[in-house]
Design a protein that fits this description.
The longest helix is centred in the middle third of the chain and has 8 residues, at about 165-170. It is globular and about 85 Å long. About 5% of the residues lie in helices and about 45% in strands. By secondary structure, the chain is mainly β. The mean pLDDT is about 85. It has a four-stranded antiparallel β-sheet with strand order 1-2-3-4, with no helix packed on it.
Length: about 450
Amino acid sequence: MSFEKISAASKWLIANVNGASNASIYSSAGGNFTKISGANTFTNGARMYFTSANDYIFGFNQNEVMDWNGTTFTKNRGGVPIGSYATWFHNYLFVAGTSANPNRLYFSNLGDPLTFSGANYVDINPGDSDSITGLGALQDEMFCFKRNTIWSITGWSGTTFAATTVATENTNVRLFGYGCNAPGSIVSVGNDIYFLSYLSGSPMIRSLKKTQYAATLGGGIISYDIKGTMDSINRNYMGNTVGSFDGRYVYWAITTGSATTNNKVIVLDTWGIRKVKGIYIYPWMSMSSKNIAFMDKSSLSGADIIYYATTSATTGLVYKFDSSVYTDEGNPITMTVIPRSYMLDPSRKSKWKYLYIKYDTGSPSTLNVYSRVDRTVDYSLQAQFNLRGTSPGLGPTGTFTLGVSVLGGGMVLPGRVNLAQMTGKILDIKFVETSNVACGMYEFSLYGNPKGLRAT
């Protein structure tokens, strides 16, 4: 978890680490992690959720609660509810998920996250055989997620915001029928909150959005295009899911297959969301072999970057997402791009002829182009582009032109792929680059001829 104490211009990363018999809280100001003094008697294996509140960082795991201000560490501070998760919103610290009252939302005194009055709570639709599963915020509303409903808290006016008005006037149901299955999956993104839901046997990323008329409505499912990946999530470990937003990309770490810890990352590029013929298109990509327990955005390095802690019991390292290198723990990162399937005519086959592409040169690597028709199991290699490029020759017989030509081939080049034996209704393309250097691709286009219809 990122913790920045603005009043002292100090920044840390905070981590809850299992030990031989007890978990401990560690901090890092940019170097090695060290155990915070006195923070070594927490329950092993109890998932802890952190939040920052008024120059303190709080951690909740339903067994214990901690707070630290960079100097003083306190465990189980008197009066602070021992819940599962919390959020600091409108100068109140909200806490939910206590074992005794799973439908109860507590809130602190105004501007004082260390003090909770006995009457400052509201029960969210008690008796509905459900429980609060997470908290989130969107503009001027604070949201309580349950498995089958979503509620909001509104009406912020200082001392008049109290348990009575919250319960009778300011608690509003937003959605019935579905809610959230993983508190760590709740991510606020501008006018949307994204969260993991579970309907009809399939995990889905859904949206709760603010409309142009300031109404908060369900924004529907945003993960249709990666349904295969979402269906691979291990249903018993959906609660492992954690997410974060860096200002452009939303990252979710998920547990897939037979794994019991997160082993894949799905990424949504919010800048690429667009509306085509009335339908929103959400651009996704995925990263495999990423074992992420938690992640958060921090400016520890001077810029906002996502840091993440691994689930490894032996290394327990913390990494960051950036573009300074193209390796992962020293191993080259494989780039695989699979665009949407192409079909010219649903009633007849097409003979796919050419693929045209533009790509960057100047890297000691190779871009491999694969294709397949009608969803055959294996892709076939169609072409390889040398990314070193070619520069014009020097000397009296060369064609190098000063001020125009580029030495080393560092330019954008066009290329054409002759698609061999590609006759069928549906064409799939795949681009792969496996080195530890950068690879840049631009627009590409396909050319094919529909085959004539035949009487049968």
